[in-house]
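Can you give me the bound-state structure? Components:
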Amino acid sequence: MIAIIHILVLIGIIITAAFIVWQKNLIAAAIAFAAFSFLLSIEFYILQAPDVAIAEAAVGAGVSTAIFLIAIWATHDQEAA
Amino acid sequence: MSDCMSKLVRTTADVMFLFITVFGFYIVLHGHLTPGGGFQGGAIVAGGFILLIVANRLEDFLKWFQKRSFQSCEVSGLVLFIGTALAAIPLGYIFFKNFLNGAGGLFGQAVPFGINSGILNTAGTIPIMNIAVGIEVLGGLSIIVLYMTSGIRSHEEGE
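Here's the bound-state model for the whole set.
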């Protein structure tokens, strides 16, 4: 059972990572990065590192997503124009 | 950035801020028993403050919390950490000695032998240093995002 969840989490990590790279909309890419980070913290928990999982969920999915959003708001999108 | 988010997002952020803060301080206070500790709990509490910064206008946030309070959080956390480490020297021990462990006072209860469910009032100076690191990380991570948001505003006004 845990092996199936593990494989599903790994597939989800690959899908979200590819989505971040190929997505043109920067806000959607930032939110996909938060989903990637959340799946990575589940992977850390499965690999028996709950301490790293909490740090990854707090810093990766919380703080860095907010920093990316503020940076996107502060700049202009030249590729879409 | 000049306009804030919708009322739905702002209300959800205001309600969730309390629960995120309580959960973060729970992680800090149980740092010596369960996974987590000062950095993880402080990052969770700072995530609650950053949620408020992103959801609301900057002027509204600065009406509720001042920048100086986050700066004093950071400084007081560092002073508490190094003060706890230095307090062992006048008592006759070496630097960073865990002088409260087993002394019977604050966080000084002895751990019973065998499997137990985890007693909060143990481990000596380790919970105090966890609290110090938690306060310091909460001030530091919040003020990074706060100064970043203020930098956007002053840059737009300068143009």
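A couple of observations. The radius of gyration of chain A is 14 Å. The interface with chain B takes residues 50-51, 53-55, 58-59, 62-63, 66-67, 69-71, 73-74 of chain A (CB under 8 Å).
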